[in-house]
Fold this protein.
Amino acid sequence: MITDIRGFVAETWAEGIRDRPSLNIWEYARKYLHFTPKMGNITGPYDPDLTPYTKLFQEAVTGDFRNIPEDDWWLLALLERSQRVEECFVVKSSQSGFTQAAINATVYIPQFAPGRLLYVLDSVPKAKKVALTRVIPFLKQLCGKVIASEQDLTSTFIELLDMIIEFGGSYSAGLFSEKPLRYAFLDDVEYMVAEGGVAGMLDGVHVIDHVRSRFTTAQDSFLGVFSKPNLESSDFISNANAGSQHRFYVPCPNCNARQVLLKTGLYYDRKECRDLLGRYDLDAVEALTTYRCNACGHLIEEKWKPQMNAAGIMLPKSKDARRRDEDPALVPRRMSMQISDLNSPFPKVKWGILARMCIEAENNPAKLKHVQTNHFAEPWKEKAINLRAENVRAVIAGAINPKTEKHFPDDLDGEGRLKVPRYRRGEIPFLPAYVSATSDVQGDKFKWTVCAFKADGTCALVDYGAVLSTNSLFEMTLDPRSHTGDPYVCLADPARRFQLDHGLIDSGDDTYAIYDFCIRTGWNWYPSKGVGGLDAGGQLVFGRADLYEGTPILRYHYNDYQIKVLYYKHKIERAHDPRYPSPRLYFPEDIEDDFILEQLSESLVPVVVRGSTKMMKWIHDKKMGPNDYGDAMKMQFVIWQIVGPQYMAPPSKPESHP
Ligand SMILES: [Zn+2]
């Protein structure tokens, strides 16, 4: 224990800043920071190896790096230019240990690199709590002689011999203070009090920029901003994307391959995780979830996590990957990093619990957003709707034409009644000839749609949603239910129960997993694939034989270009155009903006192919959002091409509407 810090500090600083202290922040914290039961759940000495991914951030605060991996091109170049990290943006999960990392720095700085420091949290009470329970006790313990007066130990303003520490909530007056800062930490900046609906804004300026303006005269300043992400479009994420984008790479205990742990690696899709009905047994999921190595496929048990973390290193995003992802240009001296709860040492977010949360969040966008942002530290994409959404809204059963403020004439029968009544998701508005399901596979998500078809080709979207495994789709096949978990209700015959008569799934990247699924459903579902015009042999849809482990497979290929024309142009854009009288498509009245937007992200545009030769091409505007629901919807009309004729043929099918 340091006994006379005043003398120690004076001596150290007499020697000048060039001689760095023998211990950097996390080394110092390991030696001197000792948690008492009053401070929280963990007692005993601070262990930097519990959250080793916070070391780089702590090193960046004072520019005191100890082990730089040779692959860290960004940091090596920075140091080669004799520069220091001036800003560090940390996109973190809920249980990551970064608040403690900043507290370590707050305790270290007064002794070894003093300068005015501002620590801002998302609320004043939280700021007081952190100051009183986690910073002041350490300062008293370690720099007793540095504190000028015990009376200055208020929770928001700590005056030490060489420096001032200010604590504030996001609206604290401290942010306006003219006094120049050397250090600032903004903790959970995305969740700071919102002004006019924009988090972190204060008098029209973002808190991050308020604080930046206080660094004007300070040399060697450091701004640390860390937060759970919220929206992709936020200032915080834009700032982080223009930084180095370090990620934490850990080795597989089996093959040693270095990888960033991702949500898609969680493995719980096993027999033991299900009950007799095939539903997830959440206790079993919590207990049995493992992680699948993305290199060797080996299932890694969670007990290896401490060793994996210990051997982990932070590496910046490569220049190639930045180019590919169209990232913003690198801002000089700005480091950024991202860490998820998959690396967290804390039992509250062990892999099994994260897996359980993923399952519970299926089909629930609000929960999905929470799990994605708070636990996987991935920002959420919010989407805007543009004018063309009107085309989609006009397809809603019983829609009102905004120009005439009346129903569209073609929606009405001879007596002025709606041919298909207004209905909600989970409801079937007429007695169907068949009910069909489709699923588009995008990475780890299976977006599904369920439609009801009349024998004349009239189609009603009954419901849609997203699940994370083919097992969930299988459950849906055995016991079809809406996104709310209720059985589908037919407005024309409420007592009738429905099954899925036909299913079509995108055979995707993992074709064999999809084959397994289709075989398991007893060919209730078929694999399918969109192909170019020539591959489709001039046909709209055709079956193709394949063989998988001795089992004959029938895979449906469809002319992607033409099916999109059928769906987007004939079923949506020209829905009410009397010149194109094809069977109608109807949407429920409560379709969400997300769903609408996914129908709008594709457009057919003329593209120059050679010289002045133009060709019409389907372009997917990825910035607008995914097109998975659009893909899943168009596949409904592939099913109609395949099975429609067999329903059209017999004229004796019962019809509910006159
Ligand atoms: Zn491996």
